[in-house]
Design brief:
Elements (H helix, E strand, L loop, with lengths): L2 H20 L14 E7 L6 E7 L1 E3 L2 E5 L7 H8 L2 E6 L2 E9 L7 H11 L16 H7 L5 E9 L11 H16 L1
Antiparallel strand pairs: 1-2, 1-5, 3-4, 4-7, 5-6, 6-7
Length: 184
């Protein structure tokens, strides 16, 4: 992906997508055009600070799969390798899970990569090909260095309505509006 486009994605993700999920509005952004998005919450490998990264995903057999489009250079990917216990904010709720990289030899790897790229909507095309029509051989060649991650759900995570989330904003806003209506 060209650097200017990467910068645009970084800006939109940090200042729009992450806040929308923290406000509990992530469900509004899952569709075939914009893609199906979740937010990964992982500890920084150097700072220890909580980092949030929106990524596209696919669900298969009770597992959650995502890819690192920035390959092994993505900070969130490096953080996951250092700390594989993470929380996810999915459009329908939050979970806690363990991450593992799917080995290249896994017979289902290509089908899962294809599904994640299809679920990415328009962003799936930024790999440089159409995930719907690319041949198996070409997909295997072009995704050989593309890390595929499997997340095994282990329990509930903290979501938008929990401590640290921002869904409280709607309660305050609604209460203020109702008070204004009553006392005006």
């Amino acid at each position: 992906m060209p650097e200017p486009l990467r910068r645009i994605f970084w800006f939109v993700n940090k200042f729009f997508m992450v806040p929308m999920f923290r406000l509990g509005l992530g469900f509004l952004f899952g569709n075939p055009l914009s893609g199906y998005i979740m937010v990964i919450k992982v500890r920084g490998r150097k700072s220890g600070k909580l980092r949030l990264a929106p990524v596209n995903y696919a669900l298969q057999d009770g597992m959650i799969y995502c890819i690192s489009g920035g390959r092994r250079s993505s900070d969130w990917f490096k953080n996951l390798l250092a700390n594989p216990r993470i929380e996810l904010i999915l459009p329908a709720g939050a979970i806690y899970g363990a991450v593992e990289e799917v080995p290249v030899e896994d017979v289902h790897r290509l089908a899962l990569i294809r599904q994640v790229l299809k679920n990415a909507g328009f962003a799936g095309y930024f790999e440089g090909y159409n995930p719907n029509t690319i041949s198996e051989a070409d997909l295997a060649n072009k995704s050989a260095d593309l890390p595929l991650l499997r997340i095994r759900p282990m329990g509930l995570g903290s979501g938008a309505g929990d401590a640290g989330g921002w869904a409280w904003f709607w309660t305050v806003l609604l209460s203020t509006w109702l008070a204004w209506l009553i006392f005006r």
